[in-house]
Amino acid sequence: MKFAKIVRIFACLAVSAILSTSSPAQVKIKSYQFDQTNITVGDPIQLKLVIETDPSFEIRLDALDLRDQPHIEANLPIVKRLEPDSQSRKAIYEVVYEIRAFLTGEHKLPPLTIRIEDQEGKEIQLETPAYSFEVKKTKPDDATEIRPINPPLTPDLNLLPIILAILLLLLIGVMGIFLYRRRQDQVIDEPTETRPKQPAHEIAYQRLNEIEQKKLIEAGKIKPYHTEVSDTIRCYITDRFGITALELTTRDLLQRLSVQKEISIDQFQRVEHFFASCDLVKFARNQPSKAESHIRMTEVREFIGYTKQMLTDLTD
């Protein structure tokens, strides 16, 4: 410890001697501080200089030349101007270098170059002596031993709430299925009302009555009248004989009716005449008289009544 203080004093005297010989009473290092005790690998070391110079002078500080010291790092110097004493007319600057060493053993910093330029532009270069320091091992003797890092604590997982929630969901699902099936079993199928199908001749008679109530003949609507009467008998033939009369031409329909045993030759001829008369009105623009138009209604009713009677006799 005493040796380190002696080294500091000697270095300070040497710097002062160099500066005084170069530029007496104009530039001087008032003090310096370099802590060399208990330096370990990676610890920041501060080299602090306090420089006094004429206010008109400019100071330039170079970075430390550490090309031969790859295991040492140094930041750029930080320069701060301090308030001078009341009796002094000099400018006072504080210069701080922060240094780190990453290798144990003795180390030596290269000299620091201080460049000073006066009012006339003349430059004065001053160099400080080399500073030596020792880097000790990374862990001091009084440091505690580094213990291994414990793994992160994992909280005890309580599975009981999860299990209870799953069981509750299963119970709700089972009860829902049970209630649904029970309700389905209790549902009584309502008997569907089965109404007997209305006979084809009744439907045809109702339709013919509706046509007569429209009074199409009296209104001069001969063609619509023949069309509706013709469609009515075609629907009757479909319901009674199972022939798709509405989709067939008159020729195809008559051919299908000719093989029906329930229809006599006389009735076949009557219905053939009926369709021929209706086609003349619908397609040939024939305009029959009102009396002749009423005959179409009579022919239809006779055909329906005759074929209805024949089918009734067969079912009996």
Report on the structure:
The structure is a single chain. The protein is α+β, with helices and mostly antiparallel strands and 316 residues long. It has two domains: 2-135, Immunoglobulins (Immunoglobulin-like, Sandwich), CATH 2.60.40.10; 200-315. Helix content is 43%, strand content 19%. It has helices at residues 2-22, 160-186, 200-214, 222-241, 250-257, 265-283, 290-315, and strands spanning 27-34, 44-53, 58-61, 72-74, 78-82, 91-101, 105-109, 113-117, 123-127, 131-135. Strands 1, 2, 4, 5 and 6 form a five-stranded antiparallel beta sheet that branches. The chain has a three-stranded antiparallel beta sheet with strand order 3-8-9, covered by helices on one side. Helix 3 packs antiparallel against helix 4. The protein is rod-shaped and about 150 Å long. The termini are far apart.
SSE order and pairing:
Elements (H helix, E strand, L loop, with lengths): L1 H21 L4 E8 L9 E10 L4 E4 L10 E3 L3 E5 L8 E11 L3 E5 L3 E5 L5 E5 L3 E5 L24 H27 L13 H15 L7 H20 L8 H8 L7 H19 L6 H26 L1
Antiparallel strand pairs: 1-2, 2-6, 3-8, 4-6, 5-6, 7-10, 8-9
Helix pairs in contact: 3-4, 3-7, 4-6, 4-7, 6-7
Number of strands: 10
Q: Which sequence of SSEs, written as H and E, runs from N to C?
A: HEEEEEEEEEEHHHHHH
* Biggest sheet overview: 5 strands, antiparallel
Strand content range = 15-25%
- CATH names the topology of the largest domain as Immunoglobulin-like
So what's the overall shape?
rod-shaped
- Counting H and I runs of at least 4 residues, what is the number of helices? 7
Distance between the termini: 143 Å
Q: Could you estimate the helical fraction of the residues in percent?
A: 40-55%
Instruction: Report the CATH superfamily of the largest domain.
Output: Immunoglobulins
Uncertain residue ranges? 9-24, 188-193
Q: Please tell me the CATH architecture of the largest domain by its name.
A: Sandwich
According to CATH, what is the class of the largest domain?
Answer: Mainly Beta
Whole-number mean pLDDT: 77
Over the alpha carbons, how many angstroms does the gyration radius reach? Answer: 63 Å
Q: In terms of structural class, how would the helical and strand content be classed?
A: alpha+beta
